[in-house]
Structure formats: C-alpha cells, structure tokens
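ok so heres the complex, two chains, lmk if somethin looks off
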Amino acid sequence: MTAPESESEAQTGPDPAFLDLLKWTADGLIPAIVQDAEGGEVLMMAWMDRPAVVDTLRTGQTHFYSRSRKLSWHKGGTSGHVQHVEEIRVDCDGDVLLIRARQVGGACHEGYRSCFFRKVEADGRLGATGAPVFDPRAVYGAGS
Amino acid sequence: MTAPESESEAQTGPDPAFLDLLKWTADGLIPAIVQDAEGGEVLMMAWMDRPAVVDTLRTGQTHFYSRSRKLSWHKGGTSGHVQHVEEIRVDCDGDVLLIRARQVGGACHEGYRSCFFRKVEADGRLGATGAPVFDPRAVYGAGS
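and the predicted structre for the whole thing:
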C-alpha cells in the first residue's frame, strides 16, 4: 500500500487564528462533518481535538480524534483513502466544523463511499443504499 | 406569523424500529446533520433526543433537543422556517443521523440559508460567505 504522505507535497496551512473562536466540548473536542467537495455527498462525521484541527490545516488532509482509542489519527493513513481538504467552514455557534474535501476511495470502513449508506425505510427498519466502492477485508485485513 | 403545524397535514411516520439500533450519548442524545434535499448544501447540525426523533418521524418536520434550554423544540416553530424531511440516513456506527430535508426560508438564526456561512480564510480568520436570506430581527424580534 502506498503511504499517502509520500505522494502529497508538504503544505503550510493558514495560521489557525479561528481556533480560539471555536467552542470545544468539556473533553476539548468539536464535531467535524466531511462533505464531498465535488458531488456534495455527506461522507462522515467524526470528532477533532485541537491538534487534529492543526494537523488538518498543516497537511491539507483530515485528521480526527478517536474517543475510543483516545488518540489522533490521520484519515486514510492505513487505507490510503485520504481526504484532501478544499475548504473549512464554521457554524454560527462556532461548535461544529464542515470540511469540504476530495475523498480518495471511500470514507467508510465498511467499504462504502459515505458512512451514511443506510436509510430509514417506510417500515422503520434500516436498508442499505448503493454499493461498496472497495472491499474492506482487502484494505484493512481479514479481521475487519 | 402562521403556525406551520396548521399548514401541514398530520403524518404518520414509520414505526421507529431503528431507534433501538442507535447509539445515544450518556445524555441520551444523537447528533443530526441536516442537508438540503435539493441543492445538497449542509444546513446545520443539532442534537436530538429520542422524543425529538419520534416527533420528527411523526410530523415529517425536524425536531431537536436544546442542550442549553433542556427541552425539545420544533425547528421553525417560531420563524416558520421548517424543514420537511425527505429521508433519514444513519451512519455505519449508528451514532449520527443525516436528515435530507426541504428547508423553508433559512436554517440559521442569523438569517443565512445555512449555519455554515463562515469559512476559514487563508489568513486563518473567519469570513462570511454569501448573504442572508431573511432579516432575523424581523423574524425573531429586535432582541435577537
């Protein structure tokens, strides 16, 4: 697998002056929605801590904070399915980020382009929409 | 101002069998992203408790839970700027909802179509994008 870091040029992000305007949770986190910059599809929502926002600005690729693993991670660092950031927006209350990005491969660890691949059907159950864009077993290993 | 409830016919939502599959926070909440069903613009993110999800299904219009006011509220109940739900999606982890809806007026209490009307500029500051679609003082009163 190709390490995506080696393909992308080092980027210097903007000075993160806006960070001090954000409202973080008591745990120092902020939710970040990622939207496909091209098709407009909402791909995922995850949490960022301050270092993850700074790393996202610095590298031009999304970084998040895993609440279960209690560490920052580079989206696509294992799979190669990185997100190239086009624009970062902040909501009116300053407590949610919207990141418009170009998604390589799929955002979802289950192989789908978007994590929101299930819809509520008329009978109140969940049904899958669309088809996976990659095989998660091939990307993450058979244990996934 | 016209009460939006009186305009919409009573709707019977699907049986919310999927509710038991959702992962709620310790406070019994789940984040809900609202996306414009027509243009694809991400309009807002807010929190729902279980009654808010049920009311959203039952009425076909979004309801949320205000963490500051500690109560459920009908989006657009004051302003008339309701959101007519077209589809509800659930993410792979079952801990985020994506609601595709037809927005009447604007989603943002500051008068913009989307709450994400500010973008991070190259200098690290926030700049407004676009223009308001309504005057919040006229809709919510001069104190807003």
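quick notes: The longest strand of chain B covers residues 29-36. thats all i got rn
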